[in-house]
Amino acid sequence: MQERGRDDLTSVGGPVLSAVEGTRALLRNNALNITTFIIVSLIKTVLALFVLLTAVAYTVWLERKVVGHMQNRWGPTRVGPFGLLQPLADGVKFLFKEDLTPPHVYKPLYIAAPMIAVIFALTSIAVIPVGNSITLGSLHIPLQITDVNIGLLIILGVTSLGVYGVALAGWSSNSKYSLLGGLRASAQMISYEISLGLSLVGVLMLTGSFSLRDIVDTQGGTFWGFIPRWNIFYGGQFIAFFIYLISAYAETNRIPFDLPEAETELVAGYHTEYSAMKFAMFFMAEYANMITVAAVASLLFLGGWHGPVVGPPILRALLPVFWFVLRIFGFLFVYIWVRGTLPRFRYDQLMAFGWKFLLPLAIANLLVTALVVALRA
Amino acid sequence: MTHLIIFLFFGALCLAGAVNLLVQRHPINSALSLVVVMGSLAVEYLLLGAEFVAAVQVIVYAGAVMVLFVFVIMLLNAGEEVRTKGSRVAMLFGIPGMLVGSALVGWVLIERTGSQTVAAGALPGAPRTIGWLLFHNFLLPFEVTSILVLIAIMGAVVLASHPDTDSGKKKS
Amino acid sequence: MVPISYYLVLSGILFACGVTGFLIKRNIISIFMSIELMLNGVNLSFVAFAAQWHALSGQIFVFFVMVVAAAEAAVGLAIIIAVYRTRETLNIDQVDLLKL
Lengths: 377, 172, 100
Fold this sequence. Notes:
The structure holds 3 protein chains of 3 kinds. By secondary structure, chain A is mainly alpha-helical. Chain A has one domain. Chain A contains 13 helices and 4 strands.
């Protein structure tokens, strides 16, 4: 039995085994010292978290500004030039407000829920690559906290755990509006997660890897010299991109699918009973999730960090990061644009749309992609 | 060494979650401790080199099945459970019997398989290999399970739909 | 390096916890969660044996267990909702009539 198992493995996983061995050898050679590795990782983590939180704050500012202009208003203008210091003022306000705890809440979960939401929203940044690698002296640093070969699965797993924050907040607040919001959120997020996942499978079949870095690397170059070889233009993934876009709006509870916090019917949905910093945590989690979703869309469909690169070496290393950030901001702008334009769906419409339209469409797209891949092989 | 420490830490977390599931009286606390158990089991799978299984464990079990449980608990707003008094015979014989039995099983397991150790990532549970096996050697079970899932979906829809939906349609 | 038996002992304890929960819990949902706990214990032993025998089939079994568990959860929770709708209780001791 054991022998047969080994045979199976060598015939199937031969290349994989050698890849693992190769990685080990590389690690042994590069094991110059573990302290350097830890220091570099720490610096990368702190930097990534700082940038992410700043980006969250300024996405809020961007949203208020853009929606303001769409509605013929100015948006924030008072604090700093163009209201640029508004996020800072908001943060200070959240910190100094009184932290109310309503009397009939289920306290342990009431306190834990916003933390769960924000932790899972911030975790996924760990596997998102933002560019190639930079070389400092003899040190070769990839611009990513950690490159695991199941990166995409980790992002999916972490975002699917984020539901708990919302659901528990709704339940533990012990208020009817919160409970309705929490119920809506969990049902909606489970439903749309399926079409979200299925829309990504097409890209995975074309690439043959879960590693985000590999997926981006296959998207370099152009078709016929002028169309960039992004997945969105390739193998019919255009439809997959739109399925992803719509499911992502539902996953992050944004207009037109912001039923869990629909203020006209549910006061504020699952965070009705929250105030001060706990409320700010939900806010941060929502915007961090938006950024994660935008980053995944750019990596999988829009070619990641590929773009024209010119100039001295330092510019060559940093321009890809700029292109990547530009894509994320483009995606976020579409988010805000949709928010300023579309009305909210009704809940039964939302469910029917997800199960009866998006899911069959995603499966059909998957079949077509499989056919394309099979014919090409 | 680090391997052992990680194993022990997450094993302890796992056991704490499992025991908490038994002790807690409110279903939602039990559900959350089960999520903790599943999360730490995912780490144990990573230690055994089954990275794809670990990811699927988090996505399917912790992210979907348990959310469904929490959803139902919230929907029915089930309160704390009422404890019935345990029988004296169970207390007298059950607990010592369970302890003896589990000690026996543990001893057998350690004695019989004690020499074998596993290194971290001993087996490449790479998605590509697993997919290959799943669609070649295990194709028939795969198809049968998919039919099972289809039947389960239909069953869930039928069971959970309102019993008077049909009559309501007839009335209107 | 961790001996394979440690994993097996852990899985055994998890399974025992599941059985205990199944027997002592009185809430249908909690009983159902105990079953999930047992399945998780079994999964751990599958993965441990897969690592011991260097055969990936063990990991494939885990997938099948997960799929069956998910299907079971969907149907089981639907049954629980149906039971709650007719009996208005989740206590297993009070759901003992064949016909209302």
